[in-house]
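Here is the promised in-class demo. Please do not try to memorize the tokens; focus on the logic of going from shape to residues.
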């Protein structure tokens, strides 16, 4: 074994492809206290770096570059703690092989099953089941076989092409060099031999895909299109298509590391220029002209939920796929998978570490390929728009419909024409605040004033809409998200009809209010924060609901046992506890004028 300079903490994504093939391994452990990793301690030939710990005293993820007989290995070692699930999914997304270690005395744990499902979902097809601490079961071959048998049965439906189980002595996993006499009954390959024998799929045979990371205009002439080849190879003169626009052109020049090249392969970072001045933007994908990927905005997908807060269908997240970024919503949870048995379970929301099959809808068409055909264009992450944290990762199975199959119906009479007839500027005035804060009182008074001035208005009130359109919804977080999504869509249609719409819903979450805002033109949406302190609302207790909630007779009551997230920058901030309803309406009218 030779030794490469260890690229400490180097993510897979930053590795450039060189002449020798690189086997990417994701290694994780469900053994012991979960804080150990299978490749420790660092081998004498390959010292790596000393394990680092984060503030909580947990080991961090480490990347090591090793070599065995001319084969280079990039190993991502993921500590077994549940906090590392996201890192495991990240590393598994590009790994060729997973090394999953168990403790012989514990056998399979829920962690083993979760890790195995995640690596399978992210497209890893080869698994090494490293059965460590064999001395704890007296090096018993039957104990080993029982674990292997159990694992094979569990993993039978997960689509692995190969599962190799290898026994190990000791607490620290992989003993590369020394044969352990007590394991002489094991006749399979050693870990180095097995790693050497694994075939790496050739990603250059796939049609070329280049997600454009940025467009460089630093040189005179046509812009340089920069990105990392996600599949296939590219040469000057190749016919390519730009997606989603579909425009066809040719590669003019190809640069790698600043020098002109005749060919570049999957994994390499390249800069291209095109023969024509076709419009290309960051997020577009360049592809082989005769075999382009699909473009769609509705998908069936598999989703691993990572957020501490449960996933709510209907809530908008930011979806990142290759270099594309669009708003996305889970429109339906088809089923959640039981991590142990794989059984399909009904679910209204997803808790952290749940895996589910869902329908996903994006706000704009996305260039993609099914994950089984291309991992780079078939996997995505979901980001919470407020915290900017990754809350989900997933893979696209197939498009539910092509984006191009559904078009906006062009109508002769549009919003502008309708509004002109009504002699008004359509608006959505969105009241948010606690129950009893005064939303309905103020909205109703404002409507009276507008009506008297000859304006065309409509009030959408939570209490009323919940008797009809939203009668199927309760007050869980997921139901409130859907409640607001529907009413925002209705308000948008009404504004489109030319009306001034007054929406009066608690609408407790920033995400959904921002989603609603996103449906309207910039100055069409007016967020009004009806900021009455909880104590005052509770003192008023118009409907006796606060008293009920305090007695524990009403669950999920906003302000008591369900959160209210105040707006950060509302257009109007009202303080009804200090001003009469009439005074509040006056200040609103001034703003609307
Ligand atoms: N658990 C719980 N939490 C909050 N509110 C409750 C609850 N149960 C019933 N109600 C009554 O429902 C009204 C709020 O409905 P909304 O559609 O505005 O709520 S939300 O926007 O979906 O949060 C609200 O009306 P307002 O007082 O006018 O706000 C309450 O009367
Ligand atoms: N300045 C004020 N603005 C609005 N409502 C007020 C004000 N002062 C007192 N109230 C009273 O508070 C209650 C608010 O109830 P409501 O308008 O139904 O609130 P919400 O729609 O937010 O649940 C009403 O009984 C209203 O008369």
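The designed amino acids, position by position:
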């Amino acid at each position: 074994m030779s030794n490469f300079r260890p690229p400490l903490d180097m993510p897979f994504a930053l590795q450039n492809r060189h002449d020798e093939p690189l086997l990417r391994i994701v290694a994780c452990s469900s053994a012991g206290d979960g804080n150990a990793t299978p490749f420790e301690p660092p081998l004498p030939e390959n010292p790596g770096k000393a394990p680092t710990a984060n503030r909580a005293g947990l080991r961090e993820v480490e990347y090591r570059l090793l070599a065995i007989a001319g084969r280079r290995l990039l190993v991502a070692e993921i500590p077994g703690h549940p906090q590392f699930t996201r890192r495991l999914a990240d590393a598994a997304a590009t790994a060729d092989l997973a090394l999953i270690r168990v403790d012989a005395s514990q056998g399979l744990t829920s962690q083993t099953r979760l890790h195995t499902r995640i690596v399978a979902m992210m497209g890893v097809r080869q698994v090494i089941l490293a059965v460590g601490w064999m001395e704890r079961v007296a090096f018993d071959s039957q104990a080993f076989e029982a674990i292997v048998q159990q694992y094979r049965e569990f993993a039978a439906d997960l689509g692995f092409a190969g599962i190799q189980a290898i026994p190990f002595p000791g607490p620290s996993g992989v003993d590369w060099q020394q044969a352990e006499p007590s394991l002489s009954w094991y006749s399979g390959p050693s870990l180095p031999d097995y790693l050497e024998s694994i075939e790496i799929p050739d990603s250059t045979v796939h049609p070329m895909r280049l997600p454009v990371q940025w467009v460089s205009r630093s040189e005179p002439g046509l812009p340089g299109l920069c990105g990392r080849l996600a599949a296939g190879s590219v040469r000057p003169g190749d016919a390519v298509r730009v997606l989603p626009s579909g425009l066809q052109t040719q590669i003019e020049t190809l640069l790698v590391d600043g020098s002109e090249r005749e060919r570049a392969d999957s994994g390499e970072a390249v800069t291209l220029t095109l023969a024509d001045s076709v419009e290309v933007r960051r997020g577009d994908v360049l592809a082989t002209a005769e075999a382009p990927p699909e473009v769609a905005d509705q998908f069936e997908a598999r989703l691993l939920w990572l957020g501490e807060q449960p996933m709510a269908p209907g809530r908008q997240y930011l979806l990142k796929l290759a270099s594309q970024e669009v708003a996305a919503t889970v429109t339906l949870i088809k089923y959640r998978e039981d991590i142990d048995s794989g059984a399909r379970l009904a679910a209204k929301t997803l808790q952290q570490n749940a895996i589910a099959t869902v329908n996903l809808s994006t706000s704009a068409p996305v260039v993609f390929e099914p994950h089984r055909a291309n991992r780079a264009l078939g996997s995505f992450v979901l980001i919470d728009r407020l915290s900017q944290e990754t809350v989900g990762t997933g893979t696209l199975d197939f498009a539910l419909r092509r984006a191009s199959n559904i078009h906006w119906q062009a109508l002769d009479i549009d919003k502008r024409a309708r509004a002109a007839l009504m002699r008004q500027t359509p608006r959505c005035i969105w009241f948010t605040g606690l129950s009893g804060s005064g939303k309905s009182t103020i909205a109703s008074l404002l409507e009276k004033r507008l009506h008297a001035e000859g304006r065309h208005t409509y009030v959408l009130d939570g209490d009323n809409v919940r008797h009809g359109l939203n009668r199927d919804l309760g007050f869980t977080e997921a139901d409130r998200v859907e409640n607001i999504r529907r009413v925002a869509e209705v308000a948008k249609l009404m504004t489109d009809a030319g009306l001034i719409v007054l929406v009066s819903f608690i609408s407790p979450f920033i995400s959904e209010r921002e989603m609603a805002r996103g449906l309207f033109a910039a100055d069409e949406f007016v967020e009004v924060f009806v900021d009455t302190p909880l104590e005052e609302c509770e003192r008023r207790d118009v409907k006796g609901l606060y008293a009920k909630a305090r007695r524990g007779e009403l669950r999920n009551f906003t302000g008591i046992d369900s959160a209210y997230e105040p707006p950060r920058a509302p257009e109007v901030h009202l303080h009804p506890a200090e001003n009469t309803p009439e005074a509040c309406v006056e200040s609103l009218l001034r703003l609307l004028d």
